[in-house]
Amino acid sequence: MKIHHIDGNHSNNDITNLKLVTIEEHYKIHHDQGDWDACLRMSYRMGILPEEKSDLARKNALQRIKDGTHHWVGPTHNQSLVRRGIHPFLDREAARQRNLKRIAEGRHNLIGEENPVYELIKKGKHHFQTNNPSTQMINNGTHHFLTNHPNKIQIECPHCGKIGGSTNMRRYHFDNCKKKIITSQTH
Length: 187
Description:
This protein is mainly α. The protein has helices at 23-33, 36-46, 50-67, 75-83, 92-104, 117-123, 133-139, 166-172, 178-186; strands at residues 2-5, 18-21, 154-156, 163-165. The strands form 2 sheets. It has a two-stranded antiparallel ribbon with strand order 1-2. It has a two-stranded antiparallel sheet with strand order 3-4. Helix 1 (23-33) runs antiparallel to helix 2 and helix 2 (36-46) packs antiparallel against helix 3 (50-67). The longest helix is centred in the first third of the chain and has 18 residues, at 50-67.
């Protein structure tokens, strides 16, 4: 059995905010909410098929990019790598060689027969082994992490003043903000 925090705030351990659920129910709750990070973490304890884990990881990465929390997002870091000429996509052949070496040494994060990418690597069709479409976008300065992408916009909650990515802010603040809820309950 697992404890689910109804309002999504793990610090709020009020008994009215807690719900005892099975791991399958917990997974379904978070899946229905689009909380891919929680689903991905639970999937490792549930015996979910590798293809579904891969899909969850993809959705989680896309959500983190949209929220501005993914480690690849942020023009400052990536522009710095591009300016210094060391961004992995700038020298496609060097990146390809690094990844092939990691594969040969058995330490690449994508290897393993249970990983759906394994077949692409075996066939030589993984994007690190072929032309990477990101290279051209980086070279001409149009790649989304080199520009002020709309998903990087930060917004402020009018109730508590917290600033963050638009998706999480809209999810946990504005109409759902704890300060707004507390204020409306006291009136």
